[in-house]
Amino acid sequence: MECRKYQEHITAAVDNALEKTERDALELHLADCPSCRNEFEVEKLTRNLVRTRCQRKRAPGYVLQQISQRLEHEDQPTRQVSWWKTLVGSTYFKPAVAFATACVAIIFLVNNPSLNSPRVIEASLLPQNDIIKQSLANHVAVVAGEITPQVVSNQAEFVQGFFAGKTKFPVVLPKMTDCTLVGGVLNDFGGEALAHVVYSYNSSEIIYVYEACWKTVLNGSPFHLSRDVVDELQRTQRYSTTTPDGRSLVLWTDGRTLCAAVSRIEVAALIACLDAAR
Which domains does the chain have, with CATH numbers? Predict the structure, then answer.
């Protein structure tokens, strides 16, 4: 409860809108609480991205109408513990950066005004169970060292054995060019098993791969994926985009498995790695 109280002051603190006594109390808490300090730093980073990368554009009238209607009919949201904090009950799983990833996606929407493009996602309306939002957030946590593998090995057979029999879907371990397998994590979300696989690219970048049951995703629960993304995956078996902060995202289907890879390498290079693994 105490963390929640301070987290509610983070936005005001970033905006320099707190009274001095409240600011001093928050700073004392941040000094002792890595979780809240992480959330504070993420919000500062996100605000800087919005300020430096976004251009002001007028949204079409029908978009504003849809947002207004959604807000009118939406119940007051309750603050939920980030889903990956439940991963195997590990102390390595820190607070979510869901706000940051949502804002990154919002920046992508603002800077890509072609509303008919299948690459455009109304990220501000995406629920917390959206696979793209989760994948981007998890990549941030992996790079920051906040998510660490349960199984560490560069041997695909060993990592595959760790996942064996624990998921509805075959876990995919792509043998990508210039990549070294690091390990994997297994967790449960909404009663469905998820696999998370980590690679090192040229010993300098991380490639994080989120994997779920494709049939379950198509059913729409407990996971969410935008209709345009699902349509493109069904049509071409692949969906890719680049976020304004330089991260590449590639989704693809492999039989009964849906995979989402995220990395800071260029999207063309990431696709080339994945194609070489097929």
Answer: 123-276 (3.40.1000)
